[in-house]
Protein backbone atom coordinates (compact mmCIF):
# COMPACT_ATOMS: atom_id res chain seq x y z
CA UNK A 1 0.00 0.00 0.00
CA UNK A 2 1.22 3.47 -0.82
CA UNK A 3 1.72 5.33 2.45
CA UNK A 4 0.72 8.70 0.96
CA UNK A 5 -2.83 7.35 0.50
CA UNK A 6 -3.41 7.13 4.26
CA UNK A 7 -3.85 10.92 4.44
CA UNK A 8 -6.85 11.11 2.06
CA UNK A 9 -8.47 8.23 3.95
CA UNK A 10 -8.13 9.94 7.35
CA UNK A 11 -8.74 13.57 6.38
CA UNK A 12 -12.49 13.18 5.87
CA UNK A 13 -13.05 12.29 9.53
CA UNK A 14 -11.93 15.65 10.96
CA UNK A 15 -13.81 17.45 8.20
CA UNK A 16 -17.09 15.78 9.10
CA UNK A 17 -16.55 15.74 12.87
CA UNK A 18 -15.41 19.36 13.20
CA UNK A 19 -18.24 20.71 11.04
CA UNK A 20 -20.76 18.61 12.97
CA UNK A 21 -19.28 19.66 16.32
CA UNK A 22 -19.53 23.33 15.39
CA UNK A 23 -23.10 22.69 14.29
CA UNK A 24 -23.84 21.24 17.72
CA UNK A 25 -22.24 24.32 19.33
CA UNK A 26 -24.54 26.59 17.32
CA UNK A 27 -27.59 24.52 18.27
CA UNK A 28 -26.53 24.51 21.94
CA UNK A 29 -26.33 28.31 21.87
CA UNK A 30 -29.96 28.53 20.83
CA UNK A 31 -31.01 25.87 23.36
CA UNK A 32 -29.10 27.34 26.33
CA UNK A 33 -32.29 28.09 28.29
CA UNK A 34 -33.87 24.66 27.74
CA UNK A 35 -33.44 21.25 29.32
CA UNK A 36 -31.73 19.96 26.14
CA UNK A 37 -28.76 22.32 26.49
CA UNK A 38 -26.54 19.96 28.51
CA UNK A 39 -27.14 17.06 26.12
CA UNK A 40 -26.27 19.08 23.05
CA UNK A 41 -23.28 20.66 24.82
CA UNK A 42 -21.87 17.27 25.81
CA UNK A 43 -22.52 15.94 22.30
CA UNK A 44 -20.61 18.90 20.84
CA UNK A 45 -17.67 18.22 23.17
CA UNK A 46 -17.57 14.55 22.23
CA UNK A 47 -17.75 15.20 18.49
CA UNK A 48 -15.26 18.10 18.63
CA UNK A 49 -12.84 16.05 20.75
CA UNK A 50 -12.90 13.26 18.18
CA UNK A 51 -12.54 15.83 15.40
CA UNK A 52 -9.48 17.41 17.02
CA UNK A 53 -7.88 13.98 17.53
CA UNK A 54 -8.50 13.07 13.90
CA UNK A 55 -7.23 16.49 12.78
CA UNK A 56 -3.88 15.79 14.42
CA UNK A 57 -3.84 12.27 12.92
CA UNK A 58 -4.54 13.81 9.51
CA UNK A 59 -1.62 16.19 10.01
CA UNK A 60 0.66 13.31 10.98
CA UNK A 61 -0.35 11.29 7.92
CA UNK A 62 -0.07 14.48 5.84
CA UNK A 63 3.56 14.85 6.89
CA UNK A 64 4.30 11.40 5.44
CA UNK A 65 2.43 12.27 2.25
CA UNK A 66 4.21 15.65 2.07
CA UNK A 67 7.65 14.04 1.84
CA UNK A 68 6.50 11.69 -0.92
CA UNK A 69 4.40 14.08 -3.00
CA UNK A 70 6.41 17.30 -2.89
CA UNK A 71 8.75 16.10 -5.63
CA UNK A 72 5.83 15.24 -7.97
CA UNK A 73 4.09 18.63 -7.94
CA UNK A 74 4.42 21.58 -10.31
CA UNK A 75 3.67 24.17 -7.63
CA UNK A 76 5.07 23.15 -4.26
CA UNK A 77 3.79 26.40 -2.71
CA UNK A 78 0.21 25.06 -2.83
CA UNK A 79 1.34 22.10 -0.73
CA UNK A 80 3.04 24.45 1.74
CA UNK A 81 -0.11 26.60 2.02
CA UNK A 82 -2.21 23.48 2.58
CA UNK A 83 0.14 22.34 5.37
CA UNK A 84 0.15 25.79 7.00
CA UNK A 85 -3.66 25.97 6.89
CA UNK A 86 -3.96 22.45 8.32
CA UNK A 87 -1.72 23.23 11.28
CA UNK A 88 -3.52 26.51 11.91
CA UNK A 89 -6.90 24.76 11.78
CA UNK A 90 -5.82 22.09 14.25
CA UNK A 91 -4.36 24.66 16.66
CA UNK A 92 -7.48 26.86 16.47
CA UNK A 93 -9.87 23.97 17.15
CA UNK A 94 -7.66 22.63 19.94
CA UNK A 95 -7.54 26.05 21.60
CA UNK A 96 -11.28 26.58 21.13
CA UNK A 97 -12.13 23.21 22.63
CA UNK A 98 -9.82 23.67 25.62
CA UNK A 99 -11.19 27.17 26.22
CA UNK A 100 -14.73 25.77 25.97
CA UNK A 101 -13.91 23.11 28.59
CA UNK A 102 -12.36 25.77 30.81
CA UNK A 103 -15.32 28.10 30.38
CA UNK A 104 -17.76 25.33 31.35
CA UNK A 105 -15.63 24.41 34.37
CA UNK A 106 -15.43 28.03 35.53
CA UNK A 107 -19.19 28.38 35.11
CA UNK A 108 -19.80 25.18 37.08
CA UNK A 109 -17.46 26.29 39.87
CA UNK A 110 -19.21 29.67 39.79
CA UNK A 111 -15.89 31.45 39.41
CA UNK A 112 -17.22 33.78 36.75
CA UNK A 113 -19.20 33.78 33.54
CA UNK A 114 -17.44 36.25 31.32
CA UNK A 115 -18.93 37.30 28.00
CA UNK A 116 -15.46 38.19 26.70
CA UNK A 117 -14.35 34.56 27.09
CA UNK A 118 -17.52 33.47 25.29
CA UNK A 119 -16.79 35.85 22.38
CA UNK A 120 -13.16 34.70 22.15
CA UNK A 121 -14.34 31.09 22.12
CA UNK A 122 -16.89 31.87 19.39
CA UNK A 123 -14.21 33.60 17.29
CA UNK A 124 -11.86 30.65 17.69
CA UNK A 125 -14.53 28.22 16.49
CA UNK A 126 -15.50 30.54 13.63
CA UNK A 127 -11.94 31.10 12.46
CA UNK A 128 -11.20 27.37 12.82
CA UNK A 129 -14.17 26.60 10.59
CA UNK A 130 -13.04 29.13 7.99
CA UNK A 131 -9.51 27.73 8.03
CA UNK A 132 -10.96 24.21 7.72
CA UNK A 133 -12.78 25.23 4.53
CA UNK A 134 -9.63 26.74 3.02
CA UNK A 135 -7.53 23.73 4.06
CA UNK A 136 -9.94 21.43 2.23
CA UNK A 137 -9.97 23.73 -0.80
CA UNK A 138 -6.18 23.64 -1.07
CA UNK A 139 -6.25 19.86 -0.59
CA UNK A 140 -8.69 19.66 -3.50
CA UNK A 141 -6.40 21.82 -5.64
CA UNK A 142 -3.52 19.47 -4.86
CA UNK A 143 -5.48 16.40 -5.94
CA UNK A 144 -7.61 17.68 -8.81
CA UNK A 145 -5.31 20.25 -10.37
CA UNK A 146 -1.86 18.89 -9.59
CA UNK A 147 -2.61 15.17 -9.32
CA UNK A 148 -1.18 14.67 -5.83
CA UNK A 149 -1.23 10.98 -4.85
CA UNK A 150 -2.94 10.12 -8.13
CA UNK A 151 -1.40 7.20 -9.97
CA UNK A 152 -1.02 7.93 -13.63
CA UNK A 153 -2.16 5.16 -15.92
CA UNK A 154 -0.05 4.37 -18.96
CA UNK A 155 -2.71 2.49 -20.89
CA UNK A 156 -4.29 4.18 -23.85
CA UNK A 157 -8.01 3.93 -24.27
CA UNK A 158 -9.27 3.15 -27.76
CA UNK A 159 -12.78 3.98 -28.77
Walk me through this protein's architecture:
By secondary structure, this protein is mainly alpha-helical. The chain is 75% helix and 0% strand. The chain is built from five helices and no strands. Helix 2 packs antiparallel against helix 3 and helix 3 runs antiparallel to helix 4. The longest helix is centred in the middle third of the chain and has 33 residues. The mean pLDDT is 87.
Beta strand %:
under 5%
Which residues form runs of ≥5 with pLDDT under 50?
Answer: none
- The radius of gyration over CA amounts to 19 Å
Estimate the helix proportion, in percent: over 70%
* Dominant shape: elongated
Gap from first CA to last CA: 32 Å
Output the structural class: mainly alpha
Could you spell the SSE succession in H and E letters? HHHHH
Total number of helices: 5
- The total beta strand count reads 0
Main beta-sheet annotation: none
Mean pLDDT: 87
Secondary-structure blueprint of this entry?
Elements: H1 6-10, H2 12-30, H3 37-69, H4 76-108, H5 115-144
Brief descriptors of the model:
mainly alpha; 5 helices; 159 residues; elongated; single chain
Short overview:
This protein is mainly α. The protein is built from five helices and no strands.
